[in-house]
Amino acid sequence: MGVWVSFFAVIVLIVIPWVGAQGAGQYLFGIVIPYVAVLVFILGFVYRATKWAKTPVPFKIPTTGGQMKSLPWIKSNPLDNPSNNAGVIARMALEVLAFRSLFRNSKLELREGPKLDYASNKWLWIAALAFHYTFLVVFIRHFRLFMEPVPGFVGLLESVDGFMEVGLPRLMMSSLILLLAALYLFLRRVAVPQLRYISLAADYFPLFLIIGLVSSGILMRYFIRVDITSVKELIMGLVSFRPTVPEGIGVIFFIHLFLLSVLIAYFPFSKLMHAGGVFFSPTRNLPNDNRVKRHINPWNYPVKVHTYSEYEDDFREKMKEVGLPVEKE
Amino acid sequence: MYNKGTIITGLVIFVVLFTSPFVLGLVTSGPPPEPELTAKAKQAKQCVEVKEFMVESHMQLLDDWRNEAVREGKRTYVATDGKPYTVSLQNTCMECHSNKSKFCDQCHNYAGVDPYCWQCHIAPKEKS
After folding, report:
1. CATH code (residue A145)
2. Residue A152 maps to a domain
3. Which among A35, A57, A61, A168 is the top mutation candidate for probing chain B, defined by the most B β-carbons within 10 Å of its own β-carbon?
4. Which pLDDT belongs to residue A58?
5. Taking the model in full, what pTM does it have?
6. What angle do CA A39, A256, B20 make, to 5 degrees?
7. How far apart are CA B60 and CA A164, in angstroms?
8. Is A262 a member of any domain?
9. Contact A155 B62 (CB under 8 A)
10. Which domain holds residue A241?
11. Residue A192 lies in a domain
């Protein structure tokens, strides 16, 4: 169900600029919507992050995958169960840059016997790495369209990415890998019954949106060409706040730009916020120093206490009468 | 808010990164390129194909030319308007557009592309 809803939602999102980006409509799809989308993205991101930051952290969560630091003769695992900030930074860096928790993904199977079998399963990890890193490369390559002069590292990246020199304009490997990885991430959700069961429209929609975005980009680069010089003129107009819409840009560009606008405007309100959320993961960002440092519950209110010595002061005589031991005579 | 310092630093880095193209754009945006035609090209009045097609797809035309010449030995290209052209990067394109640095390079620098053709093909000599 969720698959079809998301699929048709993305089809509608493709049809809207297809029909609308004509004449004056190009100002809407080329200028107004991109500006609004960037604004929503940045403000939405900050809003979500501050909302998370305001959530009280009642206690450190030590459910991490390693032995905590304790007695000197017990071997501790400083990376999986860090006791200081340096360890936390290393653990977080590995998570963000190498997707360590996906690397630990395992598959549970009931074999004949009956026997329960755990096997390592690295496909998700590999596809996720391929997806995110080629996405980054594609993103950086786009800098040639919104920076003038074009910084040198962009050209360097292009010559590495396109070193196969297939066709003209030359094939960028990253675009192909990105599309294949996104398709894998989608097929995995429909092919594995357990995954299909837990997948919602909110899981399929961003995938379809990204597949649509990447496909429109590939189409525009290799098949339905547009005038890149005018496209850059439009983008430079946006980033220098002197917006213009040059004549004669093909509609495929407006479809691409609209899908991107929808993606970034949707970003802060969707699961895509895991980009910011990973830094807020309690099991990743807290050192396990529960027994070293005292953690004060943030919503503690002053409790009226009545200590034992006060209690004894109140009842000393009576306690003595019935023969109860007292601490102070 | 907990870990206020770290979170606010992170958010400031995020905002600065994602608004930097706009800040840079305000400071350093050049005008779009205006490729210059040589006297010879002006005389010819038109390119191999119509201008819109050339602007959008000249690299695809070059790719077709290259494959046809090198793989099939087809060395004449008949344009849509029926005019025949010799299939050659150096002797056809660069004959009319002999001002590479004021023509091809103008656009290519702007769009950040660096065609690798000139590693082997000889760029026309330009008087400057």
Report:
1. 1.20.950.20
2. yes
3. A168
4. 66
5. 0.92
6. 35
7. 17
8. yes
9. no
10. 2-303
11. yes
